[in-house]
Write a structure and sequence with these properties.
heterodimer; A: 281 residues; 2 domains; 81% helix; B: 308 residues; MetI-like fold; two-stranded antiparallel sheet; 16 helices; 2% strand
Chain lengths: 281, 308
């Protein structure tokens, strides 16, 4: 490594210290806004900002008793569950032909499938708004929001599962066939257990994305509210401590879910590794 | 493969060596692609068709709140005839360019430090810490800055405390600098990740070889490092610049009247039921994205999401 070089040259050591200092500043920059948000949610000042007049958890109590928030929470979770189901199925199913078949226009198809992540959500939102209201004459509802969100979240499942399929030893499947397994059995006992961690991670990822999704939902939700939409409508009138508390709760939920998305698949993988041994015994 | 319909043909398939099967029955071939069916419905009907619709709408007319299928470029002509809109387009490009460059400038030294000076076993955890805020709600990440930049926010409190100001300054909020600051905050993880990914693969011995041969560190960075991480740089630029072009929330919450971007115009058009004009403005963003992707196409071809 370059370590020896730095010891020789004092200038190198200085550069290194400066870079480390920069990194510290960056972590402060990244976390200060979020930490402050949480701090303010416990601040008894009713304007939700400085000065800190004392510590309280009453804003959290208000969050739990606000019926609008409870409504929004129900809608949010309902939408998130539906989006997760749709995205997981569509994304997993599409990963197979994407990885395994010799497609014509393969790169074109691949780009189309990943495009919804790349282009601004605003474009997805307004284009679906036009489709639903002007062409299909559909009432905007949580269902239209589910469709919009699924367009954006499905590519994530697709990428995760496709990556896993790519690194998947096809001879395992052949071995299963050699031993007399039919297609269903191959899928059930060979392919799915190996893909399960990726699918689970994808599902948790999608659930979190849906929970936090804002811009597409804004256009497609109609008269309902999800939590981000509710927060947005409140923020227009200024910061309130209640919104800070709600925000802190939402932050905690996303972080927990994402942590699960990392930890659970590893656990599943370990569990899956044990299963065939048992079955074989 | 994903379909039961290929079952009948499987034994023949299996008998073949590991290479690709020579001939496949009709059902097997359909079975191979059947997994795409739901995706074709989802992405076709609810992604490509709507985008095509927006293209059409931008060339149609709104008459008395009804869309008339009459082909015209009036929406574009109208858009460019209003000086405020044209100014907003330039402002959007300007803000996007500045924010992207700043994001890269902030992220590069960080990624460089992480890839070169941090022991490998700590790199991953430090990287996770960078992405951590990114996993939280996008709305909340913008919102959290109101606590800092607002009139009663941390920044003003700090200035007041140091005695630099005696009145709260609203300078921080509701102008372009605030928008750019928050955009850098939002997209820093993208840039840091992509830059780290390419710096991590770089062989630092080349760097030392260059310096042994008399290059200054700056020259070594410019002549040895930068050319090799160019695909990473391009990816970073694309992944930061494109979403910023379509930003709506950041200018809306922290930008105020002076921080308006195209995204806000589009939303205003659509909320005012001026679908065709809104579509034209939206297509302008799409055009800018296509332009950018064409410019960087060559570098992009190197990238492959699955590494096939």
């Amino acid at each position: 490594m370059a370590r020896d070089l730095d010891i020789v040259s004092p200038r190198g050591r200085l550069t290194r210290a400066a870079l480390a200092g920069w990194a510290v500043l960056i972590y402060v920059f990244l976390f200060a806004p979020i930490v402050l948000l949480v701090v303010f949610s416990f601040n008894s000042n009713k304007y939700g900002t400085f000065p800190i007049t004392g510590w309280t958890s009453k804003w959290y109590g208000q969050v739990f008793h606000d019926y609008q928030i409870r409504d929004a929470l129900t809608t949010t979770i309902r939408i998130a569950l539906e989006v997760t189901v749709v995205s997981t199925i569509v994304g997993t199913a599409a990963a197979f032909p994407l990885v395994r078949s010799r497609l014509p226009f393969r790169s074109g198809i691949r780009i189309t499938l990943v495009l919804p992540i790349m282009i601004p959500g605003l474009l997805i939102g307004i284009s679906l708004l036009v489709l639903f209201t002007s062409v299909l004459h559909q009432q905007l509802s949580p269902t239209t929001a589910v469709i919009g969100q699924a367009v954006y979240t499905t590519p994530f499942v697709l990428l995760l599962v496709a990556a896993r399929l790519q690194g998947f030893d096809a001879s395992l499947e052949r071995a299963a066939s050699d031993l007399g397994a039919n297609t269903y059995q191959r899928l059930r006992y060979v392919v799915m257990p190996l893909l399960a961690p990726a699918i689970l991670a994808g599902a948790l990822f999608v659930f979190t994305l849906s929970l936090d999704e804002f811009i597409i939902t804004l256009f497609l939700i109609g008269s309902h509210n999800t939590l981000p939409i509710y927060i947005y409508t409140q923020v227009k009138f200024g910061i309130t401590p209640e919104v800070n508390a709600l925000a802190a709760l939402l932050l905690a939920a996303s972080l927990t879910l994402m942590a699960l998305a990392f930890v659970l698949p590893a656990l599943v993988r370990r569990a899956v590794r044990l299963v065939p041994r048992k079955a074989g015994a | 493969m994903a379909s039961p319909s290929s079952e009948a043909t499987q034994p023949a398939d299996v008998a073949l060596p590991l290479g690709r099967p020579a001939r496949r029955s009709w059902t097997a071939r359909v079975g191979e692609y059947v997994g795409f069916a739901p995706a074709i419905v989802l992405f076709g009907l609810f992604f490509l068709v709507p985008l095509g619709l927006i293209v059409c709408y931008s060339f149609w007319q709104t008459v008395d709140y009804n869309v008339v299928h009459h082909w015209t470029v009036d929406n574009y002509r109208y858009f460019f005839s209003v000086p405020t809109y044209v100014k907003t387009v330039w402002a959007t490009i300007w803000v996007s360019v500045v924010a992207t460059l700043l994001t890269l400038a902030v992220a590069f030294p960080f990624a460089y430090w992480l890839a070169r000076y941090v022991p490998r076993r700590y790199q991953k955890i430090l990287l996770v810490l960078v992405i951590l805020p990114f996993w939280t709600s996008y709305l909340l990440r913008v919102y959290s800055w109101l606590n800092i930049l607002g009139a009663q926010g941390a920044m003003n409190r700090f200035l007041h405390w140091t005695g630099l100001t005696d009145q709260p300054v609203s300078f921080f909020l509701y102008d372009r600098p605030a928008v750019i600051l928050v955009l850098v905050y939002l997209y820093f993880p993208f840039a840091a990740l992509t830059l780290y990914a390419s710096l991590e693969r770089f062989d630092w011995n080349q760097f030392r070889a260059a310096m042994d041969l008399g290059a200054t560190p700056a020259t070594a960075v410019r002549r040895i490092l930068l050319p090799q991480i160019r695909p990473g740089l391009t990816t970073a630029v694309i992944f930061v610049f494109i979403p910023i072009l379509g930003e709506y929330l950041t200018p809306q919450l922290v930008g105020g009247a002076r921080g308006v971007m195209i995204g806000n115009l589009i939303v205003n058009f659509f909320q005012g039921a001026q679908y065709t004009r809104g579509a034209a403005a939206a297509l302008l963003i799409a055009a800018l994205i296509v332009l950018l992707l064409t410019l960087f196409r060559r570098s992009l071809e190197v990238e492959d999401p699955y590494g096939t």
